[in-house]
Amino acid sequence: MQDYALISTAYNNEIRIYVSKTTNLVEQARNIHKTLPTASAALGRFLTVSAMMGLMYKDKDRLTLQIKGDGPINTMLVETNSLGTVRADITNPNVYIRSEKEGKLDVGKAVGKGFLHVTKDLNMKQMFTSSVELVSGEIAEDFANYFLKSEQTPTAVSLGVLVENDQSIRSSGGFIIQVMPDASEETINKVEKAIYDVGPVSRWFDEGHSLEELLKKLSNNTFKLLDKKELKYYCPCSKDGFSKSLSALDDNTMDELIEDNGIEVVCHFCKSKYNFTKDDLINIKTNR
Fold it and tell me: 102 or 214: which carries more pLDDT confidence?
């Protein structure tokens, strides 16, 4: 089954809800980056929330999100957009730290202390970057803090990634609930109770509940569906794209590459490899 997100309003338009299932795209990311379980959980949570956040923007808008901490993972980077596509990079995928709680992975310790940076490319002359300090490194709390401090929007974020014994992704998903300015205290109390009743989102999916059931539960069946979006891990890199990047290098650097009789370029996001021969490089230098 494909990954997708549901976007809705609820409680008489006082609340906006995003729910998503991301098992396939997180498994694809795991395979690409060869992540160990705790890195898989951290990157999976980051991809999930970023995919939902991208859906908050317009067609040509793009977001680049970075979590940089002092934990062993170091840095994670995600690019996303309103089309539901994401791609990611992680500095250290070889992180496996178990929590003192049985069956839990210590994502907070793997990420550590640091900052969340969000850069918005809204097709204007300048891009906008907001940065907030990480609250816990657990990702969900960090994004809730970001929405409150940078977007001035009270937000609940829940993310969950379950990793199988063979290190594959068993399930992954999450939700974002945003409180609109005119929301009543009664509505907020109902939402808080619904979140408590749902419990950990990873357990919700592991028990076999659907995304539609999650939306119904969180909204107390008051939701009005606005959109359904497919979510997928997608990297648009190409040899032509890297050719353009190489053409921006100065003459001395290009000459050094030519003297080396060619290079192999590896995409950080999907690990695709592109070979440029000596003749390719001469052609790029000549025709730029």
Answer: 214
